[in-house]
Automatic annotation (TrEMBL):
<dbReference type="InterPro" id="IPR001647">
    <property type="entry name" value="HTH_TetR"/>
</dbReference>
<feature type="DNA-binding region" description="H-T-H motif">
    <location>
        <begin position="65"/>
        <end position="84"/>
    </location>
</feature>
<keyword id="KW-0804">Transcription</keyword>
<dbReference type="Pfam" id="PF00440">
    <property type="entry name" value="TetR_N"/>
</dbReference>
<dbReference type="InterPro" id="IPR050109">
    <property type="entry name" value="HTH-type_TetR-like_transc_reg"/>
</dbReference>
<keyword id="KW-0805">Transcription regulation</keyword>
<feature type="domain" description="HTH tetR-type">
    <location>
        <begin position="42"/>
        <end position="102"/>
    </location>
</feature>
<protein>
    <submittedName>
        <fullName>TetR/AcrR family transcriptional regulator</fullName>
    </submittedName>
</protein>
<feature type="compositionally biased region" description="Gly residues">
    <location>
        <begin position="1"/>
        <end position="10"/>
    </location>
</feature>
<dbReference type="InterPro" id="IPR009057">
    <property type="entry name" value="Homeodomain-like_sf"/>
</dbReference>
<feature type="region of interest" description="Disordered">
    <location>
        <begin position="1"/>
        <end position="34"/>
    </location>
</feature>
<keyword id="KW-0238">DNA-binding</keyword>
Length: 232
């Protein structure tokens, strides 16, 4: 389970793109502002990460430029290059930050549940609620990441692997990695389709069907049916 992440401007546990990079509260006053160089760099980096998610979610990956991200962050291109060597590096930082937070919150919900299927249900409920609340990150991570560079694509494969942990529990039959990956991939695909086909999706409506889909291979139709019917 990953630890808390965050930056010098108080961004711990907040998904990238959820805050405006140009919020006055995040501005660095000119002159004697009393901040150390490290603090200034941290604030700039966090603003660039938020700005990147804002721009890529609105314009799409092919139309996202360093100038556009720097402008949305209120910094110069020179400042951008002080933190990232290119757009893919910025995308990777945003993706990893957000997925670490998402995974940790899902895992917390999973561990607090009384049983394995209830844990899966709680984890999915947490994921869908968070992505509904933060549509910029949802689009960046699930849609635009398809057009990102190889480092982001490898990070997505790493995430697929760590979500296998939701299919291990005492008394649960061992699940082959290929089965766990297929279930996780199916869940992600369903969420992605909803985002792409609905301008303002409420992803929480997917919870019954996704829980049913996730627990069906291990528990069978009878045990999974109450989740599909919304009885749990």
């Amino acid at each position: 389970m990953t630890g808390r992440t965050g930056g010098a401007d108080g961004g711990a546990d907040v998904l990238p793109g959820s805050r405006s990079a140009l919020d006055p509260g995040r501005a660095i006053k000119p002159g004697r502002h009393g901040l150390s160089p490290e603090a200034v760099a941290g604030i700039q980096r966090e603003r660039l990460i938020d700005a990147f998610v804002e721009v890529v979610s609105e314009r799409g990956c092919p139309q996202t430029t360093i100038s556009g991200v720097a402008g949305a962050a209120g910094v110069t291109k020179k400042t951008f290059y002080e933190h990232f060597d290119g757009l893919d590096a910025c995308f990777l930082a945003a993706y990893r930050r957000g997925m670490d937070i998402l995974h940790r919150r899902m895992w917390d919900a999973y561990e607090a549940a009384p049983s394995w299927p209830d844990g899966v249900h709680a984890a999915l409920r947490t994921m869908l609620a968070l992505l509904t609340r933060e549509p910029r990150f949802a689009r960046a991570a699930l849609i635009e990441a398809n057009a990102a560079g190889p480092d982001v694509r490898l990070a997505r494969l790493d995430d697929l692997a760590r979500f296998r942990a939701f299919f291990t529990a005492p008394g649960l039959p061992r699940v082959p990695d290929a089965v766990a990956d297929a279930v996780v991939g199916g869940v992600v695909s369903a969420v992605r389709v909803r985002i792409e086909t609905d301008d303002s999706p409420d992803l929480r409506s997917l919870l019954p069907s996704l829980t049913y889909f996730a627990v069906l291979p291990l528990l069978g139709r009878e045990a999974a049916a109450p989740y599909l019917a919304g009885e749990r």
